[in-house]
């Protein structure tokens, strides 16, 4: 059920965009709109909002909303729609086995929605093929954490950004993509003289504001951080006691680093950076105890993304700079609930509650859920999952809260493959998203609640669980995702496992699973909330995990982990990782001589199904564009403001030319936001190949070989 507050009563909620997770005060006007302000009491933002957050009130219209269930293009009742989904899943499992069913979830979903989807698929349908658009976002950081710490744990918190003396930003346009965190960094510079180092092949707004900008060659981050590890060792800047007492694998990792970047000169050769700049960065890092290295999509969205994360973490472990105020490696999550999805296990390589597939973990989850068909191993990650549809291996696909026909690599091939499905279910807010419009035969569209209408929790980049609360009426026949999933489960005969009376009941079960037989060897534990009352669920969040054990005094979570130097590996030691030498997954060629990078603009979110409704936000960058260096634009006959076609061997897009020295010669950049619903031929997914990282499965979205040519405006 959706509680609708009286007009003018202020509702505390959380911004639905980036992983900063800012608190928002929404004041509904009683006519479907709301006034929006930052929540001064929320510890992520203390009242501030960025351009996207402050424009939330402009994005609440019901234009193009999916308001009723649709079956094969025809409006139907919920009864018919749910029957079609349950019947289709049952038939698919009977004919082709449960592993022919796949779910593709989203970091936009609330934790409770994610939990129920994961439980239904992995415990009751018996399919391991549950992956998420977070695979495209931060799965390399997850894999790097697990390799280094034995757990997917972000060690630090936002206060560390306030207390650092040096903040190194790797592959992160924080000023545009995590704007409120960037404001905290700028404040730290004002208050304590914090230095900002920005490492990025592209000179973004963040790079413009850096004290030191390192515009390295694409894909060479592991060389830079290998060089740094060598420099720390040669300069005597290691924390030998920490290495000896709390880590393993240092010598092997250092040997590998020496093979990759034995000196500053070799690092310069590999990265294309001047030796003086590298030396300046290395010395600054070596002599400053309070260093935070924050990394984001520029590191993660890479065929070597996991190694990039570990190359960064290696330098922090080598100096013992982890788990203490103002220091540590810090993965910035992209989406509002990328972290919550990880907590419930909504990735193909996780089971549930930060558990994986050790036999005792499978047995523990099976018993907790009472699951008849618990899976015992990993499923296919996003790229492989969609390729399996092309090969006819996946026969039923349920997409929830995401737009893969815009964002997935090789999106056109995916679109073509959907006709091979026996069942295509899309839980959506918008009727005109590319993914919803791809509907054909055997398609069920399910109207889901949007931000402002739905209730539940999200977890931000610093492990802080906050509430999204409803302040608007549910429009049309839209329903909460967890309730839709539960109804389907009941129709499949699993009533006992899915008889939730409220979203709080789902949360309590999720919290209880995190603590079930958890003797402290698992990082994720919010068991203290497993008996939270409906009232406290409404009022007592946000909190940061891990929480104190249930029954112990106090409910304050820990702001930092690893302060005692004990990690979640079997011997409680962190692991150094010997990383691979840098190499792009695909080389440029005579036909495709340029390297295409992709990313965000300041004022749009993902495929702009929400931000596109705000004229103010759309005005910042009104049309899709391609950045190119003047040295490349001139010989190719490209002029600023003209039209060009960017093409790879997988597809093409038409964009406005933006000539800028912000990109390196030999590089292109195009934003990820435009879709067929908002522009003609401007989808990133149609152009990029997305070779996956062999460890994390995260696809390379930053370095696709491409060509560009001018085209005439039609
Ligand atoms: Fe929303 Fe992120 Fe902006 Fe905060 S920084 S208001 S969470 S988009």
TrEMBL record:
4Fe-4S Mo/W bis-MGD-type domain: residues covered: 8-64
Cofactor: Mo-bis(molybdopterin guanine dinucleotide); [4Fe-4S] cluster
GO annotations of cellular component type: membrane; oxidoreductase complex
The keyword Oxidoreductase is annotated on this UniProt entry: yes
A GO molecular-function descriptor: molybdopterin cofactor binding
GO annotation (BP), single: nitrate assimilation
Keyword terms, alphabetized: 4Fe-4S, Iron, Iron-sulfur, Metal-binding, Molybdenum, Nitrate assimilation, Oxidoreductase
Record's keyword annotation contains Chaperone: no
Membership in a protein family: Belongs to the prokaryotic molybdopterin-containing oxidoreductase family. NasA/NapA/NarB subfamily.
Protein name per Swiss-Prot or TrEMBL: Molybdopterin-dependent oxidoreductase
Residues of the full protein shown: 2 to 715 of 894
């Amino acid at each position: 059920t959706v509680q609708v507050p009286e007009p003018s009563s202020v509702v505390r909620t959380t911004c639905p965009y980036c992983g900063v997770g800012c608190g928002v005060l929404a004041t509904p006007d009683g006519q479907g709109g709301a006034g929006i302000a930052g929540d001064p009491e929320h510890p992520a933002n203390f009242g501030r909002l960025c351009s996207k957050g402050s424009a939330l009130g402009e994005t609440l219209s019901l234009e193009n909303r999916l308001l009723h269930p649709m079956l094969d293009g025809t409006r139907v009742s919920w009864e018919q729609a749910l029957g079609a989904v349950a019947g289709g899943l049952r038939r698919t499992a009977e004919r082709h086995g449960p592993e022919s069913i796949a779910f593709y979830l989203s970091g936009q979903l609330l934790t409770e929605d994610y939990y129920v989807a994961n439980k239904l698929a992995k415990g009751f349908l018996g399919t391991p093929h549950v992956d998420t658009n977070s695979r495209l976002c931060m799965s390399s950081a997850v894999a790097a954490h697990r390799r280094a710490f034995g757990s997917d744990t972000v060690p630090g918190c936002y206060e560390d950004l306030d207390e650092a003396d040096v903040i190194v930003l790797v592959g992160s346009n924080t000023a545009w993509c995590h704007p409120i965190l960037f404001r905290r960094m700028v404040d730290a510079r004002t208050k304590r003289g914090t230095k900002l180092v920005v490492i990025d092949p592209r000179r973004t707004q963040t790079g413009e504001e850096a004290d030191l900008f390192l515009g390295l060659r694409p894909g060479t981050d592991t060389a830079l951080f290998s060089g740094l590890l060598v420099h720390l060792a040669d300069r005597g800047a290691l924390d030998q006691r920490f290495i000896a007492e709390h880590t393993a694998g240092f010598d092997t990792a250092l040997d590998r680093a020496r093979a990759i970047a034995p000196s500053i000169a070799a690092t310069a050769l590999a990265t294309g950076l001047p030796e003086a700049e590298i030396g300046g960065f290395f010395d600054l890092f070596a002599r400053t105890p309070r260093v935070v290295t924050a990394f984001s999509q520029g590191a993660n969205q890479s065929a070597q993304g996991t190694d990039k994360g570990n190359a960064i973490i290696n330098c922090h472990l080598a100096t013992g700079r982890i788990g203490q105020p103002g220091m540590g490696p810090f993965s910035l999550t992209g989406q509002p609930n990328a972290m919550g999805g990880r907590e419930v296990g909504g990735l193909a390589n996780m089971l549930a509650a930060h558990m994986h597939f050790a036999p005792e973990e499978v047995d523990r989850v099976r018993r907790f859920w009472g699951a008849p068909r618990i899976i015992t191993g990993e499923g296919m990650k996003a790229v492989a999952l969609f390729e399996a549809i092309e090969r006819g291996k996946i026969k039923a696909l349920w997409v929830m809260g995401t737009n893969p026909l815009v964002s997935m690599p090789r999106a056109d091939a995916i679109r073509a493959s959907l006709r091979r499905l026996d069942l295509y279910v899309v839980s959506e807010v918008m009727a005109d998203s590319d993914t919803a419009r791809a509907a054909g035969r055997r398609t069920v569209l399910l109207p889901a609640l949007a931000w402002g209408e739905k209730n539940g929790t999200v977890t931000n980049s610093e492990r802080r669980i906050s509430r999204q609360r409803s302040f608007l009426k549910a429009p049309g026949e839209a329903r909460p995702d967890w309730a839709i999933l539960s109804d389907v489960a009941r129709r499949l005969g699993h009533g006992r496992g899915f008889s939730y009376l409220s979203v709080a009941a789902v949360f309590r079960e999720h919290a209880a699973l995190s603590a079930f037989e958890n003797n402290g060897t698992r990082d994720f534990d919010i068991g203290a909330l497993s008996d939270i009352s409906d009232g406290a669920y409404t009022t007592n969040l946000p909190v940061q995990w891990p929480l104190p054990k249930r029954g112990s005094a106090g409910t304050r979570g820990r702001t930092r982990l690893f302060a005692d130097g004990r990690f979640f590996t079997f011997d409680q030691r962190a692991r150094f990782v010997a990383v691979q030498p840098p190499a792009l997954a695909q080389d440029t060629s005579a036909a495709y001589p340029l390297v295409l990078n992709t990313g965000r603009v300041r004022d749009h979110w993902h495929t702009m199904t929400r931000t596109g409704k705000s004229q103010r936000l759309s005005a910042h960058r009104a049309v899709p564009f391609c950045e190119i260096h003047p040295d490349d634009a001139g010989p190719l006959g490209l002029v600023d403001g003209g039209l060009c076609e960017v093409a790879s061997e997988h597809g093409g897009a038409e964009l406005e030319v933006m000539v800028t020295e912000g990109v390196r010669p030999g590089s292109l950049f195009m934003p990820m936001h435009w879709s067929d619903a908002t522009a003609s031929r401007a989808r990133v997914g149609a152009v990029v190949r997305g070779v996956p990282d062999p460890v994390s499965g995260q696809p390379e979205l930053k370095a696709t070989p491409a060509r560009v040519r001018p085209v005439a405006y039609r």
